[in-house]
Amino acid sequence: MTVESTAARKPRRSSKRTSAAKTPAKTPEGSEPQLVQLLTPEGERVEHPDFEIDLSADELRGLYRDMVLTRRFDAEATALQRQGELGLWASLLGQEAAQIGSGRALRDDDYVFPTYREHGVAWCRGVDPTNLLGMFRGVNHGGWDPNTNNFHLYTIVIGSQTLHATGYAMGVAKDGADSAVIAYFGDGASSQGDVAEAFTFSAVYNAPVVFFCQNNQWAISEPTEKQTRVPLYQRAQGFGFPGVRVDGNDVLACLAVTKSALERARRGEGPTLVEAFTYRMGAHTTSDDPTKYRADEERASWEAKDPILRLRTYLEKQDLADAAYFTALEEESETLGKRVREAVRAMPDPDRLAIFDHAYADGNPLVDEERAQFAAYQASFAEEGN
Amino acid sequence: MAAEKMSIAKALNESLRKALETDPKVLIMGEDVGKLGGVFRITDGLQKDFGEDRVIDTPLAESGIVGTAIGLALRGYRPIVEIQFDGFVFPAYDQIVTQLAKMHARALGKIKMPVVIRIPYGGGIGAVEHHSESPEALFAHVAGLKVVSPSNASDAYWMMQQAVQSDDPIIFFEPKRRYWDKGELDTESIPGPLHKAAVAREGSDLTLVAYGPMVKVCLEAAAAAQEEGKSIEVLDLRSMSPIDFDAVQTSVEKTRRLVVVHEAPVFYGSGAEIAARITERCFYHLEAPVLRVGGYHAPYPPARLEDEYLPGLDRVLDAVDRSLAY
After folding, report:
1. Which of B25, B74, B95 to mutate to test the interface with A (most CBs of A within 10 A)?
2. Whole-prediction pTM
3. Do the Cβ atoms of A167 and B75 come within 8 Å?
4. What is the DSSP letter of B142?
5. pLDDT in tens, B81-99
């Protein structure tokens, strides 16, 4: 890849930050940190000396399919929220490459600790996308068994899961297993003490964990400048492990960089911080309004770097997919959208007594007492004939 | 092993040793728990015998200690973590309350959280700020946690065994000023359930309910009252969440008077919960309102004033007199 060509496409805001005189960045004055890139926004394949990747046509089409279906699922969920079927939705629009690239780098026996926006990673893990919607519809706090797909529940409190990932990775090392763990978080979470503590613990215990930060430029309405004065990937250096910034809209680069970090973890060389430099094209969640805090031109500049478009351009230029392929995928997308819509509408409300289920694993007499009182109270309506 | 006299500290040490021996998935984690054996030496000698991989000295980061323990539990381990002092638990409070307590329910029962958090707590040792607090009500208020505190060597040993075997997270408050009190320990006796209260002394005129460090104060108060011809029953709660209300009710139906004693501030304290429930259950049995003796709604004072703050014999006996005067 060429540093110059990447630098020319940097968002204005970030350039301003790193060129600030007092910014103690490691990069030379006025220049952006180097982004690992293997596929340019124009759909051109470029090489990087440290991160090579060689994929078959099937694999390339697979990545494309994953991104398209994930975007379609996400669009359906956003629509369902607007129609009152979901209470809230956290869209991943724009972050498909970061999630599919990193998600497809994982082995089945690796373990994932997501935040609440990793719908694409969940897709890669084989979690049925309809299971992701229970929390947002309000019927549960996570509708899947984390151990079925080695994909932990979504974590709402920012950054907490980076410590869970680190502890889990410490356990992996104790077990002598050669699997790895990946923790997802955002640029806003990088300000949390828990993330710093996770970096400390993982470094001290040489835990096989990859910290995958999707820097989507905005933590609700707060830009990355409100979180840090150094490029986020450089944080790792102070904790004693490598950090790398990858073009988060380049699915090939995300795949290659994550794979490399996971292999490093498997070899017993400890953690890596990957900063996927990307952009959240939509709102933080359906409850905020990005037009209040960011300029339209900014989104437009990132639309030119759309992760799906650039891979499509590449596939077309290389004759790796024809019109029939794209039409069939479009139909598959619509089928998925329809399935998701029907599944959400068919989701039953939980049983009333579920309030008390699973509060404790070993039981609790107080919970038993309150459950009995609640059940009797509910039954009293039936007796009155209501 | 036959019954043997030993301190609470030693009983805890023996119990942790037994846990490490019995289950290879048990780990001990915390600040200074290794070579030093903890600032109270509760883990003394354990790293030497079980290795740094089982008895883990951690970075000085409480959220990190609990957060990584959660991850280890998800991997199938059973971590016992030590928070060095009561007032140091708050950096970990978020992990305990938002993560540890709720993980089992969030996963609809699919995952378990067998984590024990040991916290030396309470005052009476002349310590500096943040080393003498009793935050048990803050944890008891949180669904998903169980909160216990032993008052004697036998309970210290057995309750720790039960806590380690539990699939629920247990906040294990250790009464630090009683660490060196000795009592009988029979490591072969079969204990009752973890949440059951125990009658520490039988009586017929009034019930004193206490747990942890205050049980001894209440037993002394009962002995003093005996000299004045008053028969006081002392109930050792042992568990602050859940609370064995049946045991309290049984005692109050007999004595008709109840005084709850704890070191923590009275305001919103566990005494309030006990008073409210027992008033509901025993309204027609009570001869006097339920009274509470405890700390004040003020930061824990400097050590030179802690004897004024902590419930002592006189304050407990005063409450006994007030109750009996109704």
Report:
1. B74
2. 0.93
3. yes
4. S
5. 999 999 999 999 999 999 9
